[in-house]
Write a structure and sequence with these properties.
Mean pLDDT: 76
Order of helices and strands: HHHEHHEHEHHEEEEEEEEEEEEHEEE
Strand order of the largest sheet: 6-5-10-11-4-9-7
CATH superfamily of the domain at 209-226 and 266-378: Translation factors
Radius of gyration: 28 Å
Largest sheet: 7 strands, antiparallel
Number of helices: 9
Number of strands: 18
Low-confidence stretches: 78-97, 100-136
CATH class of the domain at 209-226 and 266-378: Mainly Beta
Length: 442
């Protein structure tokens, strides 16, 4: 390899066929007019009018003061929902609320600004922030205090998952404006395309990823059989000529290659494109420090290595919704979702964590599970209250809300107890301060 170019004997020269080369697309270019709709014709409008006229109106019993938007999320009671009470909320009496991307409540501009301020603050508190902050500006005592706080938050998350306290100084209807009440986490419907940002169209999606994988691998095997004569022999030395390489990238690659080997790997179809990858991941036994969601980690996926901020979630086999997890806990598998180049499973995964002044250490291991941008990950919170008086069918609960308006706002949401009892809010009892409310069992 160290010999001069004049002593190299060229046996074969292979030039790629442009017709067989895959375009190296990374991001999708969305069509801004793809979602446009044409104005309906007179015949279509007349048909829709007749259809609405003939539709039978079903009367529903709704709590007093319920708006049309709140009423749309109240699901009628069905017989098959009875078994979900213990599965959905087995720990403590509370209210299960799931976050959505954008609030759709009608409000004025001042309310919208207040909502965005409080919800952003709440997200930072629940997730714990993406990073510990700038370590250069922190003293040793502050860093130790921050690490202690993260460890305590990790322990609380294991003992009391999803539980949050209602703030005293902020109305709950504003603090939790980005959340939606679900009767059942498993069976309630949720549109994966709802309220997506326009930038989300830049990633690639597949109708059926498993079928695409079989097609790509079969096509690759067919091409290998046809072009076996037009390839370099195994064990032979080759000289690669890569065109259209930026100067800065080439300079960064040349210096490390003098002391470290350069790994070259071929890509299958679609493997240069960006999508959402979901890994089945487990915390390594030798790593004791907490691992938070959205914390920067080094992912080694096959021959690839990149830095990502994974979002951890539970692995629900019989449900299309996955509950977000604030930490990666010991002793069980979770799902880590990241934006990354597409790969086809099975692909091994090794996650490394950078430690200041030390070599990266192994934090977690796993495998690639699926590639699906439409997988729903919901942040679930539980608001808890304390029963003060309990009768046969009614109970008085305190400290779940602190304002009468909040009690009326959350009336449509169904309540649960740790023993599976269900009920709804009837009325607020307190006039000021810590509000009480009557709960009636269904």
């Amino acid at each position: 390899m160290d010999s001069d170019d004049n002593q190299i004997q060229i046996i074969d020269t292979f030039v790629p066929d442009p017709l067989n080369q895959e375009p190296l697309l990374v991001e999708n270019i969305p069509d801004p007019l793809a979602g446009e709709q044409t104005w309906p014709t007179e015949a279509e409008m007349e048909e829709a009018y007749e259809s609405n006229k003939q539709r039978k109106v079903v009367k529903r019993k709704l709590p007093r003061g319920t708006s049309e938007y709140q009423a749309a999320w109240i699901v009628d009671d069905t017989d098959d929902e009875g078994d979900d009470s213990q599965n959905d909320n087995p720990d403590g009496a509370g209210m299960v609320i799931d976050e959505k991307d954008h609030s759709e409540h009608d409000s004025d501009s001042s309310d919208i600004d207040a909502v965005s301020h409080f919800t952003e603050k709440f997200d930072q508190e629940t997730i714990g922030g993406s990073e510990m902050g700038d370590d250069e500006n922190l003293t040793k005592e502050q860093i130790e205090e921050d690490i202690k706080r993260i460890k305590e938050s990790n322990a609380d998350d294991e003992e009391f998952p999803d539980e949050v306290e209602t703030p005293l100084d902020v109305p709950a209807r504003k603090r939790f404006a980005k959340y939606r009440g679900l009767k059942s986490f498993r069976t309630s419907s949720w549109d994966p395309k709802e309220s997506l940002p326009p930038e989300y169209a830049r990633i690639f999606a597949f109708d059926k990823f498993t079928r695409t994988q079989k097609h790509v691998l079969a096509k690759r095997a067919e091409l290998d059989e046809e072009s076996s004569k037009d390839c370099a022999r195994i064990g032979s030395y080759v000289m690669l000529h890569v065109k259209n390489v930026p100067t800065d990238v080439a300079s960064k690659l040349c210096h490390p290659s003098r002391r470290l080997p350069v790994v070259v790997s071929g890509l299958l179809e679609h493997e240069s494109k960006i999508s959402v990858l979901h890994f089945s991941i487990k915390k390594h036994d030798s790593y004791e420090a907490p691992i938070r969601s959205k914390e920067p980690l080094i992912f080694n996926v096959g021959f690839r290595q990149f830095t990502a901020r994974p979002l951890f979630s539970s692995d629900n086999i019989n449900c299309n919704k996955h509950k977000m997890e604030r930490f990666l806990h010991h002793g069980r598998f979770s799902i880590a979702s990241v934006y990354a180049p597409i790969s086809f499973p099975p692909v091994p995964l090794i996650v490394l964590k950078n430690i200041d002044g030390q070599q990266p250490v192994i934090a977690a291991v796993g495998t690639l599970k699926s590639v699906d941008p439409d997988q729903i990950i919901l942040k679930k919170i539980v608001l808890t209250g304390y029963p003060q008086r309990v009768s046969k069918l009614k109970a008085m609960v305190r400290y779940m809300f602190h304002h009468p308006e909040d009690v009326r706002w959350f009336k449509p949401v169904e309540l649960w107890t740790k023993h599976g009892k269900r009920g709804r809010i009837k009325e607020t009892v307190g006039t000021h301060g810590f509000d009480e409310m009557h709960i009636q069992q269904q």
